[in-house]
Amino acid sequence: MRYDFDRVIDRRGTDAVKWQTAENELPMWIADMDFDAAPEIKEALRTRVERGVFGYSDLTDEWYGAVTGWWRRRYGFAVDRSWLMFCTGVVPAISSIVRKLTTPAEKVVLTTPVYNIFYNSVLNNGRVVSESRLRYAGGRYTVDFDDLERRLADPQASLMILCNPHNPVGRLWTAEELGRIGELAARYGVTVVSDEIHCDITAPGTRYVPFASVSDVCRDNSVTCVAPTKSFNLAGLQTAAVFCADPRLRHKVWRGLNTDEVAEPNSFAAAAAVAAYTRGEAWLDEMRAYVFENERLIRERLARTAPELCAVPSEATYLMWIDCAGLAGVDEPARFIRETSGLYLAEGSHYGAGGAGFVRLNAACPRRFCEDALDRLGESLRQYRAGRKAR
Predict the structure, then answer these.
(1) Phi and psi (nearest 5°) for 32?
(2) Which of 373, 357, 231, 201 is nearest to 297 (CA)?
């Protein structure tokens, strides 16, 4: 391998949100990686620093070419340059779109359990969340299309936020599933906002399908939010893109982003994105292989030694969704695990309907962290079993 993903970087005391924990705790909750960034990206940033002047920045042809080239080369999807808009992040984009395309008290449809910040984008803007709960059976999540249609048909519903790939359950939605969602949304006049920030982090042998690529209906009734930030661990650089094919819809989104002042790049945002999309592919592919090996090791050890826990098979993201149904009587498994072993995971109930009784684990870290996490889970289970016996 060209890159060293086993290297441990001490992030304590570096203002990293993830690592603001007690010394004896291992944080594997928030979705950022513990890997050194791709050297190609660091080189591009050093070059930018050496200019020495950090005034207002504008987007260049290089940025447009890097984004469109990535989707064409890697996914066979032609994103026209005219569709593209810059944004400081996917979440700011989604919140801006919610404000621009809906009015207070209107409903925004979510398929849950889903990324918890979606709720903030809806509720903090005075809109109403309409949760269409995913079906969970045999360790796999699927869309409940009858329930989804009922919610989209509600006259108060005007927007749907889709997560593709889906965080936290790890589903890569198929072209057929995405097509059905697109047809239903268009039938009832609901615009789809597709968050595709995790699209590059896919398991071996799987395929990400951009929502807008499925059909003309999906393309013309949607806004897609993408970024190199999850794929290359660049969240702190605040760089993302939004693309929308329909010119009238795109104008509304563009006006919203500019009104909210989230449409201008900082001095490093474009340079980092260009480097990632034009020079970071080898790093990304090695990182994906490393992370999914981490996931495999965790899944296999849990199956052997922890019958109370079941890691849901994942097709995408570096986030593992773990079913804790075997921990009878434990209402908040992430809190219990943290208190008994110091392993800090995300509580499943934070992700809405259907999330209670699950935890989310971030496997994008050096392997020794995964081994430590498994040992800590073993300690939590030892205490759980001892407590059950004492009763």
Answers:
(1) -135, 155
(2) 373
Q: Which amino acid, 184?
A: L
Q: How far apart are CA 328 and CA 308, in angstroms?
A: 9
- Dihedral sign for Cα 292, 293, 294, 295, please: positive
Q: What percent of the chain has pLDDT over 90?
A: 98
DSSP structure string for 210-254: -GGGS-HHHHHTEEEEE-SHHHHT-GGG--EEEE--SHHHHHHHH
To the question of pTM greater than 0.70 for the whole model, the response is yes
Per-residue CA distances from 119 to 41, 94, 315 (Å): 32, 11, 24
Give ranges for CATH 3.40.640.10 in the chain: 41-279
Judge whether residue 391 has pLDDT over 80.
no
Q: What is the DSSP letter of 235?
A: G
* CATH 3.90.1150.10 location in the chain: 17-37+281-390
Structure tokens at 148: 């989804």
Residue type, 20: Q
The architecture of the domain spanning 17-37+281-390 is Alpha-Beta Complex (3.90)
Say how many residues make up the chain: 391
Name which of 331, 332, 337 is nearest 306 in CA terms: 337
For the domain spanning 41-279, the CATH number is 3.40.640.10
Tokens of 128: 């109403």
Which structure tokens are listed for 265?
Answer: 């790049």
311-370 pLDDT, tens digit per residue, is 999 999 999 999 999 999 999 999 999 999 999 999 999 999 999 999 999 999 999 999
Note if the bond before 92 is cis, omega within 30 degrees.
no
Tokens 């500019």 found at: 258
CA-to-CA distance for 319 and 164, rounded, in angstroms?
A: 14
Nearest to 316 by CA among 230, 391, 215: 230
Task: List, in sequence order, every residue forming a beta bridge with 241; answer none if it has no partner.
Answer: 86, 226
DSSP per-residue codes, 347-358:
EGGGG-TT-TTE
- Give the amino acid at 253: V
Upper half-sphere CA count for residue 53 (Cβ side, 13 Å): 3
